[in-house]
Structures are given as C-alpha cells and as structure tokens.
Amino acid sequence: MVLSLCLILLGICVIASLVLGSRTVGLDELIAGLFQPDVDSYGANVVRQRIARTVFSVFCGAALGVSGALMQAVTRNPIADPSILGVNTGAALFVVCGIAFLNISTANQYIWLAIVGAMITAVFVYGIGSMGRGGATPLKLVLAGAATSAALSSLVSAIIIPRSYVMDQFRFWQVGSVGSANWNAITTFIPFLIFGLLIGILAASALNALALGDDVATGLGVRTGTLRMIAALAGVLLCGATTALAGPIGFVGLLSTHIIRLILGPDLRFVIPMAALSGAIILTISDVFGRLIGSPGELEVGVVTAFIGAPLLIIIAMKAKVRSL
C-alpha cells in the first residue's frame, strides 16, 4: 500500500514538474510535448525543456534518499545526512579546486573530483567523531561534521573570492539546483545511481544485523568492517555524484529516511528502496515549489529543502534526544 501510494505521489509530482512553473501549460500542451514531436507550439516546447529537469530531479532525490539511509545505518546515527556530516561541503571544496586550479568544466570531471572530496571528508569526520570515550556517538559525529563543514566552507570562500571567474561559475551551483539539467549529465549520473541503489538493497539485511551492535552482528556472521566500508562507499558515491551535478542539496536524505522509517519501521530492506522513492518525491516537489514561489524566476531547490529540513532536524534532536538507532 505504501509503495503504491509513493508511486502515485511520484507520478503527481512528475506531472506537476512538467506543467507548473513560470509558464503553466495545459493538458493538450502536455500531451503534445510528450507524445507529439511534430507539434511545435510554445507550450509543447516548454514541456520538452522540462523533461530533462524532471528526470534529473527524480534521480538526484532517489540518490540522496538512499545515501541518507546508508549513512544513518553505517553510523547508527538517526540524524546522519550528507549535508549534516559535511560530506557535501567536502565534495564542493574539491569541485571548486578543480575549477580554480585545473580548469575543469565537464560533468565527468566534476563527478570524480566530488567523489574524492566526499570520501576524504567522510573518513575524516568519522575518524574525528570516533575519538575519545564512547566512540562515534551521534552527537560527536554531528559536532565533527558541523566543525568540518564550517572549516571547508571557509576554504571554499578563500579560493573563490579572489577569482571572479570561479565565483561566476560556482555561485549558482553552490546553493543546489536542478535547473541546469541536461541529458548528458543524466547519462553520466545513471551508473552511479544504479550502483549505489544495488549495493544498498543487497546490504540491507546485513545492515539490519549491524543495528543490533557489532558484537551481535559478528556473531551472526557479518563482517562489520567490510560491510561499513562497502555501504559507506555506496553512500558517498551517491552523494558525491549528486553534489557534483546539482550542487550541495541538503536534508533530502534526512527527510526521506525519517518519513519512511516512521511509516514502515526500521527494517532497511524496506527503508532503503522506499527512501529512494520518497527522496525523489521530496526533491521533485521542492523544485516545483521553488519555481512557483520565485515566479517569474525561481528559488533554487537547495534553499527549499533547507527551509523544510532545518526545523525537522531541530524537532528530531529535541524529541529523540539524539538516540542511536
């Protein structure tokens, strides 16, 4: 029932993304844009222009949803999210360095640099958060992520401020947006999405055992170190690839995973694939809201998700008292 509901909601969000915006199109124009390539009306062309953006927002939302679910499972931290742990900022720093010092300009180059930056940042934050008594507790990981994100943001500013050409290229990407989507970026992104989603689904049962504690998981035959490394790699790949192409969009992984866990419970065999659907719904409808609120321009989707996600983070921290999963 939940799967059917999510698919219906996703379909509604996709139609809304194709129809709504600074120029709202009618049903006949929607049909012409989708199924009648010989029709060359303005409304039909608007729909065709929005198809790539809609597909890209669905894919990015799914990737961020799965990435958030994997990071929460690996760290046993209910508020783990690429943006909260500083992974997005690490990916952004490497992209900025590539633009400033290596003159990169293609989606392929962005992705690999962002993935390397996300991986290094994830390892660093987890290492810092693991120090001291109690290991990597949720509160220590969040504090380490916040401190790392602040430091890396300062480095980003230090690099782009004296370089106006980097600022021009970076400023629209920095807030997180799917507005510049094209089919080349989507084609580049698809292998990372498929790989991360497959790893997440295949590792779900073992991650369920990991939630019981390392000792219990080891007793059940789970290689905890290998599992954490593989699951974290999948989460970082999804986050890094999304950040490279759409910018650092925050809170989608946190929102999608908590909504699904609230409805279906903690079983990751259901949470991970459903987090992909809910993440796609959240990001797509946020993009539509951004277009409607900012009409005739648009409000970037990263601003909308932050506006929704920040209060949720405060509520979770207050009510759950940052308990471990």
From TrEMBL:
<feature type="transmembrane region" description="Helical">
    <location>
        <begin position="185"/>
        <end position="210"/>
    </location>
</feature>
<keyword id="KW-0472">Membrane</keyword>
<feature type="transmembrane region" description="Helical">
    <location>
        <begin position="83"/>
        <end position="104"/>
    </location>
</feature>
<feature type="transmembrane region" description="Helical">
    <location>
        <begin position="270"/>
        <end position="289"/>
    </location>
</feature>
<keyword id="KW-0812">Transmembrane</keyword>
<feature type="transmembrane region" description="Helical">
    <location>
        <begin position="51"/>
        <end position="71"/>
    </location>
</feature>
<dbReference type="Pfam" id="PF01032">
    <property type="entry name" value="FecCD"/>
</dbReference>
<protein>
    <submittedName>
        <fullName>Iron ABC transporter</fullName>
    </submittedName>
</protein>
<keyword id="KW-0813">Transport</keyword>
<feature type="transmembrane region" description="Helical">
    <location>
        <begin position="301"/>
        <end position="320"/>
    </location>
</feature>
<dbReference type="InterPro" id="IPR037294">
    <property type="entry name" value="ABC_BtuC-like"/>
</dbReference>
<dbReference type="GO" id="GO:0033214">
    <property type="term" value="P:siderophore-iron import into cell"/>
</dbReference>
<feature type="transmembrane region" description="Helical">
    <location>
        <begin position="231"/>
        <end position="264"/>
    </location>
</feature>
<dbReference type="InterPro" id="IPR000522">
    <property type="entry name" value="ABC_transptr_permease_BtuC"/>
</dbReference>
<dbReference type="GO" id="GO:0005886">
    <property type="term" value="C:plasma membrane"/>
</dbReference>
<dbReference type="GO" id="GO:0022857">
    <property type="term" value="F:transmembrane transporter activity"/>
</dbReference>
<keyword id="KW-1003">Cell membrane</keyword>
<keyword id="KW-1133">Transmembrane helix</keyword>
<comment type="similarity">
    <text>Belongs to the binding-protein-dependent transport system permease family. FecCD subfamily.</text>
</comment>
<feature type="transmembrane region" description="Helical">
    <location>
        <begin position="141"/>
        <end position="165"/>
    </location>
</feature>
<feature type="transmembrane region" description="Helical">
    <location>
        <begin position="110"/>
        <end position="129"/>
    </location>
</feature>
